[in-house]
Design a protein that fits this description.
about 50% helix, alpha/beta, Rossmann fold, four-stranded mixed β-sheet
Length: about 475
């Protein structure tokens, strides 16, 4: 499965098909499924429990949906307001049309500063634009400092989950990954965390650049809000002399009341806690009177296909707050894992937005049972099952042509008669036209008992 894993996180259509990646994920002894189920059961179960105990949970979800939809509708206005306020606070803002512009700006900044070392907090959008690879091209070594992201980086894998990048790994996997870095302990999580702390702490102090994502950007004040489950976000944004914050352009919110509601739901839906462990609110770089913080703050706002979604039937996909709840609830994700999706975004939300952001991966909309569990789990009530159907409809031209061809064939009595299976065959796979044989796999096709109606008619066995 190694080659398929390495494909994940690339933009455009992967070399292999979704079917191939699914088969690779399902092969073996069920190790992957057991590891994923253990983590997703815990997160999904805690979120379900909190929804049941939270007064007015459905009203809060509906309010969050309304606020996110309103913000996306006002996106150009809010982004302009955000940029003005970030710059007023001493930061610099760059609007990147695509991944090349975003990584180009950051690599030029690194070269201008003479940077050779960078530390990174967990950021899906930097995975999306493949920032680490671009930094390596100009001689900058970027180290992931989120514990799960670091394990994935050491193992040569992209993240497998929006919230838990390495949730598919067992404790034995962790030992295998950390051993080459000097870890000599066993499978005790505390010992491994202590080792990671000792190893990563000097990286923060030696880094020339600190690169983070942005969970929410407050347009009214120019404040960047980052949510983490570890303290690495604060060290990444505060210790190095230059802080580069990279955000998808949809992550902007209007004001603090919206932040308050979304953070309350993000913590509950993502980690099953009443409030996130670490919430960092940054407004500009270090001021003259302050003792710590970066000398420079650069905010890179990334489009990379998002503007194409505005005004489309799938616009509500931009409401996503990247909590990962839909992945935890999805029966497909729980079986095949994140890498089988072939992109950095996986699960139901990935199956929706990846085909919208890029020109390939249209088959991802079929990686769903359409059971609606994702919609029930989503804290901002994105109708993901409906958007998946919309994705199927948008890219069903070839399928429509095949079904029309079949319909024309069956409109001919002779062609229809030729497709009648001899009695007793199950399943009659050989008689299914080639384009549909893949569809027929895994399905029990009907078995006819006795002679066909036409045969019986010719024998005179059919009475008026």
């Amino acid at each position: 499965m190694t080659d398929l894993v390495r494909e994940a996180g690339t933009r455009g259509a992967p070399a292999s098909s979704l079917r191939d990646r699914e088969r690779a994920a399902l092969a073996g002894s069920g190790h992957l499924q057991v590891a994923i189920r253990r983590s997703t059961d815990n997160m999904d179960g805690r979120w379900r429990g909190l929804r049941e105990s939270l007064p007015g949970a459905e009203e809060l979800r509906e309010a969050a949906r309304s606020l996110r939809s309103a913000a996306i509708t006002r996106l150009p206005e809010l982004l302009g307001q955000l940029a003005d306020n970030v710059e007023a606070a001493g930061g610099r803002v760059f609007f990147a049309a695509d991944a090349d512009e975003a990584t180009g700006y950051i690599t030029e900044l690194a070269q201008r500063r003479g940077a050779t070392r960078a530390v990174k907090a967990k950021s899906m959008v930097t995975e999306e634009i493949q920032l680490n690879a671009r930094l390596a091209e100009v001689g900058v070594t970027a180290v992931e400092t989120d514990l799960g992201e670091w394990a994935q980086q050491l193992d040569g894998e992209p993240p497998a989950h929006i919230l838990g990048p390495a949730l598919h790994k067992t404790q034995a996997d962790w030992v295998r990954v950390l051993r080459p870095e000097g870890y000599e302990g066993g499978e005790d999580p505390d010992a491994m965390c202590a080792f990671a702390r000792r190893t990563l702490r000097p990286r923060f102090l030696d880094a020339d650049l600190g690169i983070t994502g942005v969970n929410l950007a407050v347009a009214s004040t120019g404040t960047l809000v980052m949510v983490t489950n570890e303290g690495n976000g604060r060290l990444t944004s505060g210790a190095p002399p230059v802080h580069v914050a990279v955000m998808g352009m949809e992550r902007v919110v209007a004001d603090w009341p919206e932040v308050d509601l979304l953070l309350a739901l993000l913590g509950r839906a993502g980690s099953g806690v009443n409030f996130p462990t670490y919430v960092n609110c940054l407004t500009g770089p270090r001021r003259e009177s302050e003792l710590d913080g970066p000398e420079e703050l650069h905010l890179v706002i990334v489009d990379n296909g998002r503007s194409k979604i505005l005004g489309s039937p799938s616009q509500e996909a931009l409401n996503c707050i990247r909590c990962g709840a839909c992945l935890n609830a999805c029966p497909v994700f729980r079986q095949i894992g994140g890498h089988a999706y072939g992109d950095v975004y996986s699960g139901p939300i990935g199956a929706v937005i990846v085909p919208l952001l890029s020109d390939g991966n249209h088959e991802l909309s079929h990686a769903s049972s359409l059971c609606g569990a994702c919609w029930e789990a989503c804290p901002v009530k994105i109708p993901l099952h409906e958007l998946l159907l919309e994705g199927r409809a948008q890219h069903a031209g070839s399928e429509r042509a095949l079904w029309r061809a079949w319909a024309r064939a069956w409109s001919s009595p002779r062609a229809f008669a030729l497709t009648g299976a001899p009695a007793g065959l199950r399943p009659p796979q050989a008689l299914v036209p080639p384009p549909f044989r893949e569809w027929a796999k895994g399905r029990t096709l009907p078995r006819r008992e006795g002679s066909t109606f036409r045969t019986r008619w010719a024998r005179g066995e059919v009475l008026d």
